[in-house]
Specification:
By secondary structure, the protein is mainly α. Helix content is about 50%, strand content about 0%. The protein is built from seven helices and two strands.
Length: about 200
């Protein structure tokens, strides 16, 4: 699944567009849109919190700190309850018991991890961190690494151990990972994995 496309679909701008079609344009197709709009806004806010990168941002895009930790924890509790109550259809299976559970289970794992990070590193009496940008622990960095490894393998998407080692060494010598546009995620920050001289 292309996460970059899903993140654009589950956004507050799509929710605003649906509201506009109902409230301003009075389109009959958008009657009963409330649940969809609520879902879109919740997922959008979850993406914002889990992709927070800076303390200078506003709203839920701001990195978690002691000042906003309670607000974020309250939202995460609400999101967790919402996901746990979510069903495939009105009379269908709970989403976590269905075949479509993967994304929702991933969100629940992220919420649990978020709660643990905040409890241990932000909200403790002697916090380890002043703030924590959650983007730093996202899967994007691993995706970018594997995208670069696959890029070095040419058309081979499943390198064997020798091919992986060779591609990884090339990356270490070049000391930079570049993303290709056709992969699953877009780099939001320029993060170097390490600096190595070419004499190694």
């Amino acid at each position: 699944m292309k996460v970059k496309l899903a993140a654009q679909l589950f956004s507050s701008s799509v929710a605003d567009a649906i509201d506009y079609c109902h409230n301003k344009l009075k389109l009959q197709d958008f009657i009963g849109r409330e649940a969809t709009v609520e879902f879109l806004r919740l997922i959008n806010t979850l993406f914002d919190v889990l992709n927070s990168r800076s303390i200078r941002q506003h709203g839920y895009k701001k990195a978690v700190s002691k000042q906003n930790a309670d607000l974020y924890l309250k939202f995460m509790h609400k999101a967790k309850a919402y996901i746990l109550s979510f069903k495939e259809s009105r009379s269908g299976l709970p989403i976590l018991e269905s075949r479509r559970k993967t994304g929702f289970l991933g969100f629940l794992i992220c919420i649990k991890s978020f709660e643990a990070i905040v409890k241990k590193m932000i909200s403790s009496e002697c916090p380890d961190l002043i703030y924590f940008p959650l983007y730093k622990v996202s899967q994007d960095h691993v995706e970018l690494l594997f995208s670069a490894v696959q890029f070095h393998g040419g058309s081979n998407d499943n390198p064997n151990a020798r091919q992986f080692r060779s591609a990884y060494r090339k990356l270490l010598v070049n000391a930079e990972i570049k993303c290709t546009a056709s992969r699953n995620c877009i780099p939001l920050t320029d993060v170097k994995i390490l600096t190595v001289s070419s004499s190694v």
